[in-house]
Amino acid sequence: DADVTQTPRNRITKTGKRIMLECSQTKGHDRMYWYRQDPGLGLQLIYYSFDVKDINKGEISDGYSVSRQAQAKFSLSLESAIPNQTALYFCATSDRTSTDTQYFGPGTRLTVL
Amino acid sequence: QKEVEQDPGPLSVPEGAIVSLNCTYSNSAFQYFMWYRQYSRKGPELLMYTYSSGNKEDGRFTAQVDKSSKYISLFIRDSQPSDSATYLCAMCNQAGTALIFGKGTTLSVSS
Predict the structure, then answer these.
(1) Do B38 and B88 form a contact (C-beta atoms < 8 A)?
(2) pLDDT tens string A33-46
(3) B3-55 pLDDT, tens per residue?
(4) Cβ atoms within 10 A of the Cβ of A57, count?
């Protein structure tokens, strides 16, 4: 079984809809991250969490919110989706003793019409 | 100017060629440098990790860091078609902070 899982893997939604992307990990890591990837722009950090009670904004947090429900679960919400949020979204985890090594999930392809 | 610059390519080489991938950065506080490899429709996976300046070798892969020039490189010797992927550089200033990624370079190795 995969160590970092993301659901759904693909999602098509309409402008203005609320959508949640979920991430679960079995690696026992404290730290979790959400990135989006757009062609030609690389990975951009949306939010990150170093433990259950810690939430930090990344470089592109506007329009997004997150919830760290447990050590193993970190969800990303788009309260009112817009077309320029169409992208590939990745969740990642790292251990507090080795935060430079991040382990990525398989990604969620989101399309906002 | 972004903190990390990486030429997106694409880069096409024949099998067996030596490949050089590079990133430049502007933040002199960066100390940890990584290369991730991402296959199509997959998440990135860590390929090489270097702390501060110097070289690190792992099989056909060599990572180099030149902090004086704010320049990092990944060399791939005897490239194989299975090396075809997008390579992303990443870095941070200290353990415990989030990584800053380059845009990624797409590499294609033809047999």
Answers:
(1) yes
(2) 999 999 877 899 99
(3) 899 988 899 999 999 999 999 999 998 999 999 999 988 899 999 988 888 89
(4) 13
Q: If you count DSSP H runs as helices and E runs as strands, how many of each does chain B have, helices first?
A: 0, 11
For residue A35 the two structure tokens come to 């990135």
Do the beta carbons of residue B13 and residue B110 sit within 8 Å?
Answer: yes
In this complex, is the C-beta atom of B19 within 8 Å of any C-beta atom belonging to chain A?
Answer: no
Tokens 């759904």 identify what position?
A8
Gyration radius (Cα) of chain A, Å: 13
Q: If we measure between CA atoms, which residue out of B15, B7, B31, B8 comes closest to residue B81?
A: B15
For residue A83, report the phi and psi dihedrals to the nearest 5 degrees: -55, -35
CB B63 within 8 A of CB B87: no
For chain B, say whether A43 makes contact (Cβ under 8 Å).
Answer: yes
Place of tokens 């329009």: A63
Q: Which of B41, B49, B88 sits opposite A100 (nearest CB)?
A: B49
Q: Does B56 touch chain A (CB under 8 A)?
A: no
Q: What is residue A67's DSSP assignment? A: E
Q: How many helices (H) and strands (E) does chain A have?
A: 0, 11
**B67: DSSP letter:** T
- B103 with A107: Cβ contact below 8 A: no
